[in-house]
Design brief:
Blueprint: E1 2-7, H1 16-30, E2 32-37, H2 49-65, E3 70-76, H3 81-93, E4 99-102, H4 111-123, E5 127-132, H5 145-154, E6 160-166, H6 169-176, E7 182-185, H7 195-203, E8 208-209, H8 219-227, H9 233-248
Parallel strand pairs: 1-2, 2-3, 3-4, 4-5, 5-6, 6-7, 7-8
Helix pairs in contact: 1-2, 2-3, 3-4, 5-6, 6-7
The chain binds zinc ion.
């Protein structure tokens, strides 16, 4: 079973049904059974509570239309902490979302992220945290794997996924070696040789998960990082689906 832990509803289409069907069409070609949605049809870096809810509504409709094919991470902007906490209750406790998504609105070692991480741990909801070491310097509130390592150390019972493994993945993997509750995904950078091998060697295959960042990246180019890696078939199966099954409690 292949689970894509990291996609966005940015594919062509005007509504959740059209976008959902479009992505399923291509996922079926490469054997992806389940996809994890977050953010929205257009990316808003500093989303207001209204914009957060609108994007979560979009993904919630898609999950409810295609429950066998999608799961979701509810978007939060922890600058609006009360709203974030309410949205966790609405989307994860009372709704169909499996996890939470934190992007670039607030650096994840900020105290506001602690309340989110604590509640996520109580609920068993993984947090998909964007992490970049951006060439030329990060955005003012953009998190790096170093910031995520700080947050994760304060919340050992919460599971985090470091999206993009920091983009500069040699630095990203290095920053997360001592963070056993953080997994790294494979998405959002070019299909360079050596990434998956290094992640497995340094973190263990149980801490690496396949994600594409579709539709911003193709499924195939990101799957190639796993299919083409010099690791065992058993490790590939863990990365492609086994680890996310564990994280999602499937
Ligand atoms: Zn993404």
């Amino acid at each position: 079973m292949i689970i894509d832990c990291h996609v966005h509803p940015t594919a062509p289409g005007d509504d959740p049904r059209a976008v959902g069907e479009y992505m399923i069409h291509f996922a079926d070609r490469v054997g992806i059974e389940l996809m994890g949605q977050s953010l929205g049809p257009t990316f808003i870096q500093h989303a207001t509570p209204g914009e957060i809810e609108s994007d979560n509504d979009f993904n919630q409709t898609m999950i409810e239309l295609f429950p066998e094919r999608y799961f979701g991470y509810a978007n939060l902007n922890p600058n609006y902490l009360r709203h974030s906490m309410d949205e966790i209750e609405r989307r994860v406790v009372d709704g169909p979302f499996a996890g939470l998504k934190l992007w670039v609105a607030l650096r994840c070692n900020h105290p506001n992220a602690d309340a989110v991480a604590r509640r996520a741990g109580e609920l068993g909801a993984p947090i998909l945290q964007h992490t970049f070491f951006r060439a030329g310097g990060n955005l003012p509130e953009e998190s790096s794997p170093v910031h995520l390592a700080e947050l994760a150390a304060r919340h050992p019972a919460t599971t985090f996924i470091a999206a993009h493994a920091g983009l500069n993945w040699e630095m990203g993997i290095g920053a997360l070696i001592d963070s056993p509750n953080v997994l790294v995904d494979t998405c959002g950078f070019d299909p360079e040789m050596g990434y998956t091998e290094m992640a497995v060697r340094e973190l263990g295959a149980e801490r690496v998960v396949y994600g594409s960042d579709g539709s911003g990246r193709s499924f195939a180019s990101q799957l190639a990082k796993v299919h083409g890696a010099d690791i065992s078939d058993e490790q590939k199966a863990q990365i492609l689906g086994g680890n996310m099954k564990r994280v999602l409690g499937l």
